[in-house]
Amino acid sequence: KAGVTQTPRYLIKTRGQQVTLSCSPISGHRSVSWYQQTPGQGLQFLFEYFSETQRNKGNFPGRFSGRQFSNSRSEMNVSTLELGDSALYLCASSSGTGIDTQYFGPGTRLTVL
Amino acid sequence: KQEVTQIPAALSVPEGENLVLNCSFTDSAIYNLQWFRQDPGKGLTSLLLIQSSQREQTSGRLNASLDKSSGRSTLYIAASQPGDSATYLCAADSGNTPLVFGKGTRLSVIA
Q1: Which one of A33, A42, A90 has the shortest CB-CB distance to B98?
Q2: What mean pLDDT is predicted for residues A1-16?
Q3: pLDDT tens-digit readout, B67-85
Q4: CA-wise closest residue to B59 among A101, A96, A50
Q5: Residue A1, pLDDT score
Q6: Which of these, B46, B87, B42, B39, lies nearest to A106 by C-alpha position?
Q7: What is the distance between the alpha carbons of residues A13 and B59, in angstroms, rounded to a whole number?
Q8: Positive or negative CA dihedral for B94, B95, B99, B104?
């Protein structure tokens, strides 16, 4: 079974630009969660999508948004990038029902200059 | 609001030593507790998941325990190896809410 894939793996942007990151979950998984990881704050939850609907949302500004498609693939978008958005962005997939392990992708390393 | 703390933040041990990593959480109403491993610049790999009704889980040289009443979990690594060097994170799952992660313990096993 193929694991969670994220594209691109690395990204360099400048302040004010926007960026879209993609996540393909494990086949059959309907839940995709996004996390931001920084050295200072650790892993922080951004949002979760289940069957194309946002089920949970973390405490991030509206510049961070996401969506999920009918095939469960998910994208997150960050508009008007700030230096502080530099981070490793991880997505995780799970069945979304019951007690279930989350499976993480390798992450997208975003650097904002 | 659930908070997860991991102590110590970093640990260095000689190869072959047995070691324990600690995780504490503030809200005992959890569904399960997960331990993950993260290698530098990489994603997370799930090591063990302990359901709230369980006391411990074992996988190879790893054993994780859960004590909901005291809000604690431990990850025991037997006969540590240099390949065990990584950051270990625990995360509390309270049902249909997001995982809450600790900041991790960075482990170095010296050959």
Answers
A1: A33
A2: 93
A3: 999 999 999 999 999 999 9
A4: A101
A5: 66
A6: B42
A7: 41
A8: positive
